[in-house]
């Protein structure tokens, strides 16, 4: 089962960040129509501007064509007979000429998303994360109601169709609309599959599944993406090929079981027992005569929603702190991921290095999560990720390899935090609220993801501004982490009451559990305080 979940994570890496290539802006300048100009004037009609201390051709203006044509016809020589700085300029009225050195075509070259339309590129990137937001909100509700397995595979089919339709986009608007569906379906796969794996596996294997089964294999797909894009430089063909990667996982429906924990919450104890006994048989373990107590066979009294998360002061406070953490981590993680096409050097290699920086993070996190406390780990790597990013502003432009190394180190820190916060949050929430809680946290993360493209866009005005914003926010967010409960070596809570009992000492200003001398919790006091909170 773990291997099958890993395979599904690979396709998420394929379809998650192709906007890095599909939305990259190649070198460009104003298109000069086929008019009667001398070679000297054709070479001089594009103004020269200074960018970062380097002289380059203007990307959004040219000298007025009618004036240049008259000067060329009269035999004047640019820079010798005419001072070019005194000539009137105009916009790129005839379109743009794009370099095909790296990309044969993408959405920027097809729909001229440059100059006054440059804002449409980060907007298109954000639509993916808006889709993530909607998917996060609805996937938790759907999988808690209809089951983890059904939502995973319906979302997998929806992702395949959405990416394929996006490859046929006839306008920028259609591309963005389809990107919404791509994002919604992809995050639904991610969250539901993560919760399914978490609920199927033991405490030890949960850590392995989170770091290696989900994240590492996502990373393998992410590392493969730049080489697929390198081989397919035309964006429509690239998207059509990527859409087909989802199809091969649909037959896994007949091999992956539903979550026994979810079945129990639905009163379907016999089905859960069949799955557990089958797992015991495959692992050559003898199952006990009675696996679940009779009390578990009672159907659930009520359905849990997002409203149940905010009713209790303790759960509400824990959730708020989780939302802040997820938002900050995602701004940094996706900000650095989307920034690879803006770095010096080959964009395909930069993307590969950015993905490769995640591999040691997932491997190290697997080992550390087995032995170390969650709070200490998360705070440490938030400080590493944010601190290194803040140092980039002090690196001279000539030492771009040093800046690149710091950025990859920052990516390592954010990836570690990303891996830890997933397992940490899943361990905090009870089974009846886990998918809802994960969905809410993921929604907060998507707000951060929506903001991330615009944080990177600020780099067009000042290259260090994105690093200052991402680094400062991350360092500040690690303070919140100190107030969350520790979950190391604790059983997953099944009910809201168990969550309050396990995490009663969370420093949220409310102490939910009172302990007696014999070590057992006073359930009456818990119930009374719950009623008061509601």
TrEMBL record:
Topology class, membrane: Multi-pass membrane protein
Stretches that traverse the bilayer: 151-171, 177-196, 208-229, 235-256, 315-335, 347-369, 376-395, 401-424, 436-458, 464-484
Compartments, record wording: Membrane
InterPro entries: MFS_dom, MFS_sugar_transport-like, MFS_trans_sf, Sugar_transporter_CS
Pfam families assigned to the protein according to its UniProt record, in alphabetical order: Sugar_tr
Keywords (A to Z) from UniProt: Membrane, Transmembrane, Transmembrane helix
Domain Major facilitator superfamily (MFS) profile span(s) in chain numbering: 67-489
Cellular component, GO, one term: membrane
A GO MF term: transmembrane transporter activity
UniProt keyword Cytoplasm, yes or no: no
This protein's name: Solute carrier family 22 member 5
Organism in which the protein naturally occurs: Takifugu rubripes (Japanese pufferfish)
